[in-house]
Amino acid sequence: MSEVVIETPGAAASYLANGVTLRSWLLTTDHKRIAVLYFGTITFFFFIGGGAAALLRYNLILPQGMIGSAETYNRLFTLHGVVMVWFFLVPAVPVTLGNFLVPLMLGARDLAFPKLNLLSWYLFVAAGFVVLYALFAGGVDTGWTFYTPLTSAYTNGHVVATAVAIIVAGFSSIATGLNFIVTIHRLRAPGMTWYRMPVFLWSLYATSVILVLATPVLAMTLLLLAFERIFHIGVFDPSLGGDPLLFQHLFWFYSHPAVYIMILPGFGVISEIVPAFSSKRLFGYKFVVWASMAIAVISFLVWGHHMFVAGTSLYSALVFSILSFMVAVPSAIKVFNWIGTMHKGFIRFDAPMLYAIGFIGLFTTGGLTGLFVAALAADVHLTQTYFVVAHFHYVMVGGMVSAYFAGLHFWWPKITGRMYPEMWGRAGAVIIFIGFNLTFFPQFILGYLGMPRRYHSYPPEFEVLNVLSSAGATILAMGYLLPLGYLTWSLFYGERASANPWNATGLEWQTASPPLTDNFVSTPTVTEPPYNYPPPEVVHRHA
Amino acid sequence: MSQRFRSLLLAWVLLMVLLAIEFGTSFLPLDRSARPLVLIPAVLMVAVVGTIFMEVGRGPEIVRLFAVAALLWLSMLLGLGSLDPMTRIDYPVQAAHPR
Amino acid sequence: MPEASLTHEFQYSSARHQAETAISGMWLFLATEVLFFGALFLTWIYSRHWNQAGFDAGARRTDLAIGTINTVILLASSFIFSAGLAFIEAGNTRRLIQCCAIAWLLGIGFLILKFGIEWREDFSKHLFPGPDFAINGPLGGGARIFFVFYFLGTAVHGLHMIGGLVLVGWIILRARRDEFSFRYYTPVCVVGLYWSFVDMVWIVLYPLIYLVGRGP
Amino acid sequence: MRFWLPQATTSAAEVDYLILALLLTSCAILALVFGLILLYMIKYRAGSGIDRGVPGEKTWRMEAAWTVGTLLIFFGLFVWGADLYVRLFQPPSNALKIYVIGKQWMWKIEHQGGQREINALHLPVGRPIQLVMTSEDVIHDFAIPAFRIKHDVLPGRYETLWFEVNEPGIYRLFCTQLCGTGHAEMFGEIVAMSAPGYQNWLDQNGAEETLAKAGETLFMRYGCSGCHGGNGAGGSQSESTVPAPSLTGLYGSPVTLIDGSIITADDLYIRDCIVLPDTRRVAGYPPLMPSFAGQISAEDLLKIIAYIKSLTPEKQL
């Protein structure tokens, strides 16, 4: 793909070897080291949120609830939602894989604003401390959606502290998004035209657009909420002249695009992995690219579909419903293109590819069930039930978390310089796929039968499906603990990785594993389109 | 330099004129729903500051891109955000005022 | 100007590349700020729609004189800072310092008028929408929301002003250390963008607070 | 344990058809996606020696085909869902009105005859029912899965929901909008009865004080009678010197307003006159009526309106 001369790097030249003191990590401005810092933080929050989820599923084994108090249960699902949304799903891929790979894929030395990048990590950690304080010092029981007037006038939880934490985490996201957009515009290597960029960069670009333009609205919304709660004045409280629907509009203006913040980077990861393991060009590159950009825009136009039964006007419901169907089209385009890429390929089934295939299946299911809740009359029945819970977990967990693991395995050799154990990786992918479906598929049926969300206890006719779901959750939990174990093991005992173990294209594979501190020996020049996999007849299995 | 200074000065005078117009129109007996028209001079003032003080026309291409994006997304927020209240009929339980 | 300041950080290909990138970064940051204040503007549109009379009743209690004087002050400050930028483009550091100093003082003047005088007046007239809020009756609800908008809007804008003043002060300090020349003045550009943006926000807030609700 | 919900209303089957259509569309697409993935996984696995031919370069025809295809399917589903939604939320004018008040954490129901119940709603089958709902505190949501319908219940304003039950039985009622600690306890049951059964139930339950009757007491207590007369006959016929319009026969009759327009006095108008008298003053009387906004609870307001509605000319005799 380019004329990079790779000299055998000495150990000292690797970014990991460039200083081992705590200071060399905590004050680093190297995008790769910041990515590693983020890996640690994100993993921590993933298991905090996951632990809460495990307790939720444990509670729901019996109709009357296994955990005694509804108060505790409400606080647990709020903790689960807040941590998973703002401290795992939104930042996960951009701040870890994105931070690590954006400069490498562009052929740049670093992001445009390295200090800002480090600042974003500190903001994130600070926000993390505040949210942990708030959630453990008493917690919040309003759900991650913070609907007023429950939040502003009735609950006695730590709403303000949580809001502050989310605002600070939001600034961290804005810093990351801003950095990516400017970097992609300004720091592309010679010859790296827009249409030579890997789709991962395009989807991070689209993600960043949403991060940068939606997050500030959330900040102002939560500021208004905090103001209202502290001073007892009502922008959102009808008894004081306000309208609670204004809060919902502002909240979903951020939070709907936010689900695309979560899933778009996943699209990018899959678009890298499917061509690499099919040894074939990405089918319809430009369509995939512009589908991402279309999502970045249209995702801002659909937020009202969260409010079809909330009491908005009929016109607004109609407009938001049709726009919601529109936003599904680009996602569908992507799925077809990934399958088109597999057509006539030379498909290898390494762990990243297994995770990616799992992603396509689960995401497609999640996306299609989105049509149910975009269709107005069907939404009336299904919204605010477990159907919605299952729908967004298929997209967010089945989709996004699978994509995160796919990417993590794919670039693991590049990041750490070590191979993960392949058999364990494949086993993890399969266990997660099975455990996930067992956990969440029953919830579609529960939702259709009318079981409401956020119920600490439930009528006995829902028991069988709930037990099934909880049983599946134990398998899913094992599936998530497995990679934690074998990936940690591989850090110390894994086989040393070559520069390009997958025979993949892309500039990141043309430097050493792990990369040099300066990324490249000399600035690469790009002369070829992306995914220029050699014609099938000259493909050799990687040794 | 003096060329630039002169255009800045001109812009400032223009801003003062627009401010005076805005200030003046706010005293016109406009209907309550027509009063947001007072905002028109303000929009022009924003345009003057953006083009002359901030020189949106200078610098790399993406500067314009970012400026246009900001306006586009702002219009999405304000446009779709006011769609619901403008087309909704509420049946309040009682007039909303405290105490 | 020492040659050192013309070097660039390692991720850029040239000093010009770095300068343009910094300016683009600031513009993008300002785009996020537009949406930040945008949420507040939507709150205004939305709440006024349901409470027009209350909003107008609130707006009539605001201090038009101070608001207007402040608008003039801020426009002047932004203009003078831009002039300073024009001077440094021609290499005149002394004039840059003078302009920045005037812009800075005007900014301080704005803050004093706004928070030292106007806010104090508002509090003494019980216009803060707390328990002893001055406007009651059917218009009270709308007037309260208007004053939430007023206090939150001016407070957030004021915080941006303070941030801007710190940045302008930083420019003055660096200019006094003779760090800028006609070849290198990127920080002046970047701060100028921010300072003018703060001005822009006020240009919109001013009619929303003082003018729209004020009929004859 | 059952995996199918009863279709207890006339529209439930229609919603189910829509969901079924969505389900079939999804299954078809899923079968296509999973089928192709499995097929390619086997056929084009790296080890297989199958001839792949020359890979095609042109993709736009395929792209255009599936873009347009999905667009058309989605548009069809939108129209279907939207049409049904519009009908789901437009109550027929002859619907029986029942009042619902949500509060942390219970549902309070009031029938037109003044019968009250908590966390239960008795209603007749075979005629349209319209629920007029409001909340006393936070947002709740009145959801009946067997009717395939739900709507948020907001504080400070009325929302409505209508349906026509065609199958007698007992159905679950849930609050589906998180409303605080007791959210999961805020459920109840809908008892759909035959028309005579419902009448029977009404007769047995608190016919002693109807809404209107309670409203009459309140009419005195809030001082309405001071101007409008003890039986709502109007200021000129009472001992009061204040000229106030007669309320007898007001409901449903045309009213001329000070701006000359003529409107029909409906529930909304009567309510406005009490809490927002300035909005629509009746012609011919000085604007003396004070606003009772903030002084009358939602419940009392319902009763007073019911009383005013009951003031028909015959009743005066």
Give a description of the structure.
The complex is a heterotetramer of chains A (543), B (99), C (216) and D (317). By secondary structure, chain A is an all-alpha fold. Chain A contains 16 helices and no strands. Helices cover 66% and strands 0% of the residues of chain A. In chain A, helix 8 (199-231) packs antiparallel against helix 9. The model of chain A is unreliable at 1-12 and 539-543 (pLDDT under 50). Chain B folds into two domains: 1-53; 60-84. In chain B, helix 1 (2-25) packs antiparallel against helix 2. The model of chain B is unreliable at 95-99 (pLDDT under 50). The model of chain C is unreliable at 1-5 (pLDDT under 50). In chain C, 77% of the residues lie in helices and 0% in strands. By secondary structure, chain D is an alpha+beta fold. Chain D has three domains: 10-26 and 69-88; 96-204, Immunoglobulin-like, CATH 2.60.40.420; 211-316, Cytochrome c-like domain (Cytochrome Bc1 Complex, Chain D, domain 2, Orthogonal Bundle), CATH 1.10.760.10. In chain D, 36% of the residues lie in helices and 20% in strands. Chain D is built from eight helices and twelve strands. Chain D has helices spanning 12-43, 60-88, 195-204, 211-221, 224-228, 267-275, 298-310, 313-316; strands at residues 96-103, 106-110, 116-118, 120-124, 129-135, 140-144, 149-153, 159-163, 169-175, 188-193, 254-256, 262-264. In chain D, the strands form three sheets. Chain D has a five-stranded mixed sheet, with no helix packed on it. In chain D, strand 1 and strand 2 (106-110) form a beta hairpin. The model of chain D has no long low-confidence stretch (mean pLDDT 84). Chains in contact: A-B, A-C, A-D, B-C, B-D.
Please give a handful of descriptors for the protein shown.
heterotetramer, C: 216 residues, mainly alpha, Four Helix Bundle (Hemerythrin (Met), subunit A), 6 helices, disordered N terminus, D: 317 residues, alpha+beta, Immunoglobulin-like, Cytochrome Bc1 Complex, Chain D, domain 2, 3 domains, five-stranded mixed sheet, 8 helices, elongated
CATH architecture of the largest domain in chain D: Sandwich
Unreliably modeled segments of chain A:
1-12, 539-543
Write down the domain tally of chain A: 1
Write the element-wise H/E pattern of chain D from the N-terminal end onward. Answer: HHEEEEEEEEEEHHHEEHHH
Shape descriptor of chain A = globular
Number of strands of chain D: 12
- The CATH superfamily label of the largest domain in chain D reads Cupredoxins -  blue copper proteins
Instruction: Considering residues with a beta carbon less than 8 A from a beta carbon on another chain, report the largest interface and each chain's count.
Output: A-D, 92 and 79 residues
How far is the first residue's CA from the last residue's CA of chain A?
21 Å
Q: Got a strand count of chain A?
A: 0
Helix content of chain A: 55-70%
What percentage of amino acids of chain D are in beta strands? 15-25%
Quaternary assembly: heterotetramer
